[in-house]
Structures are given as structure tokens and as C-alpha cells.
Write a structure and sequence with these properties.
This protein is of the alpha/beta class and about 180 residues long. It is built from 6 helices and 7 strands, in the order βααββαββαβαβα. The strands form 2 sheets. It has a 4-stranded parallel β-sheet with strand order 1-2-6-7, with helices on both faces.
């Protein structure tokens, strides 16, 4: 049914890993991987875990960078160690892809408030995510970085072009590990 997938908002993965309220279950990022559908994956929203209303945050979460998205959801920043765990989960799933896949990284922030001067900005934690991807991702899965924020139209055009290129020129994937 799908000719290609541009997955810009992978944030639910952090809820599954860290007990957030938007848990998609254990199979997020696995559908296209198993079907061989060309895909570009972006770490959209992977810098935080979604909790409930701000007044219900734990003392630990209150001590972290956070903000109320609305009355029902609060985003709590993940640290560098947690971002490495997220990258390990992403690589485990993407390394099983049987079709063409690439990762597009917005170097200036993964979400609306995660960017230069943003309330949950943490470039070191985002860099830990990217470094772990580079260490663990299969060699045939490209990681393309753009010096832009995820909400920047230049980044969206970059990710779209990457997907179109992948769909037009798919290369056989290595055997999944």
C-alpha cells in the first residue's frame, strides 16, 4: 500500500522505553522494516518522554528540563545516557530492515522546544544519540545530517528529498543482523 515512509515523529519510542503515557508497544518502527518499504526515519521528539499533567510529575522529573505541552501532556527531557538507550533501540529495529532505509538527523534540534535557546535544548544529549547510531547502525544504512532544526522547511525538504532518492534508487539491504 505504501511506496515510501517518512517517519518524522518517532517520539512514542521514548514512552515505551521510559514509562511515558504515549506507549505504542514494542513494535514501533517494525512494520516498514519487515515489509521492505523504503523509509527515512527522523528522531522527531526523541529528546523527551511524554508524561501526564505537569502537576503530577515526580520530584525527579520536576528536577529535569521540562515543559507542559498542554493540560494533559508534559515533555521531560532525556539525558545523554538515556539518549544512547533510545539510539540502541532504534538501531536494533532499523538493523532488521529488509528494504532501503536511511536516517535524517536535524542537528539543531529534534522537537519544537529542543533547539538553540529552547527550554529543553541539550545538544550534548542529541549528539550522544547520533554517535550511538553511528556506532551501531548497519554500514549500509546512511545517516544524513542537516544543520537545521526539525521544524525548519530546509530540513523537511532535505528529508523528503532523501526519501524520494531512496525510492528512485533503492539499493539492496544487507541481510539483517
Amino acid at each position: 500500500v505504501f511506496a515510501g515512509i517518512l517517519d518524522l515523529t518517532t517520539a512514542e519510542l521514548t514512552s515505551h522505553l521510559f514509562g511515558g503515557i504515549a506507549d505504542p508497544g514494542p513494535h514501533r518502527l517494525e512494520g516498514a522494516a519487515a515489509q521492505g518499504v523504503p523509509q527515512v526515519v527522523v528522531p522527531g521528539g526523541l529528546g523527551f518522554v511524554t508524561r501526564g499533567p505537569i502537576e503530577g510529575l515526580s520530584e525527579e522529573d520536576h528536577g529535569r528540563k521540562h515543559y507542559a505541552q498542554n493540560m494533559l501532556f508534559t515533555h521531560v527531557r532525556l539525558n545523554a545516557s538515556e539518549m544512547r538507550q533510545v539510539a540502541e533501540a532504534v538501531t536494533e529495529k532499523l538493523n532488521k530492515c529488509v528494504g532501503p532505509v536511511a536516517v535524517a538527523i536535524p542537528k539543531l534540534g529534534f522537537s519544537r522546544k529542543d533547539g538553540p535557546g529552547g527550554i529543553i535544548d541539550d545538544p550534548k544529549a542529541n549528539a550522544a544519540f547520533t554517535a550511538t547510531l553511528r556506532e551501531r547502525l548497519r554500514s549500509d544504512i546512511p545517516i544524513q545530517e542537516k544543520n537545521a532544526h526539525i521544524a525548519d522547511p530546509a530540513f523537511i525538504q532535505f528529508a523528503c528529498r532523501l526519501l524520494l532518492d531512496l525510492m528512485e534508487n533503492p539499493t539492496p539491504a544487507e541481510e539483517p543482523k
